[in-house]
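Lecture 7 notes: from sequence to structure.
We start with the chain below.
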Amino acid sequence: MLDGYGLHTIIWDSADERLGDLLVASPADATGRGLELHVRQGGAAADLTGAEVYFLWRHKMAGTRGCEPMTEIDASLGQFVVYYPAAMQEAEGAVDAQFMVTHDGKSISTRAFTIRVEPVITGGTESEDGFTLFVETIKRYEGAIEITTAAADAANEAAEAANDAADSATASWSGSVLTVTSASGTSSADLRGPQGIQGIQGETGPQGETGATGPQGSQGPSGTTPDLSAYATKQYVDDAIAALVNLEEEEF
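Predicted structure tokens for the same chain:
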């Protein structure tokens, strides 16, 4: 019942055409009011197959803004629809809006037109369809900046405190004993631990390679030639034989 009753049809026939007349929205609407866009080119329906169409808006008084993807009715006929998001209708006042078509890395948008958000006379409740993806992304981005800034401030304070403590502290060594004196007092610690047990003797390593031949030594002094003239005569030999005992007369 009343399907499409709150939709206002807008025909976009040329890039610079002025759109819209009296467009209104209400915080009491929940997917009640919206816009149905028909895109034409040269008087005929524009084939927008594969294109993405968005509804862009910015509330003049509240400063909120959003980007809503439009739902395809028949892309081949250039027909798309969008219902006003709750974020746009949270406060009464004027809203600047426009459509944008993107395809193959290119985009084109309509001229801006105005939607007036009217108050709820009977005290109705706001729509509950939630914020747009665009607004949620902006809020997450801004929240991340705040968190990052707070973390940086805390880190800077901690660094300053550490620097102050380091400037007021002194250290001295006595053998292996370290003594530190700071604003909080003096403390010492022997940093030499007990001697460990002797380890197991390792296996004998492999025999090393034969070393290179050393340099040749210097030549020694020349020796003296003995005088053998007394032993080389015939008389010497005869005397030696005569002095021998006749071995045949000896008993063995």
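Points to note: The radius of gyration is 54 Å. The domain at 7-117 is CATH 2.60.40.3350 (Immunoglobulin-like).
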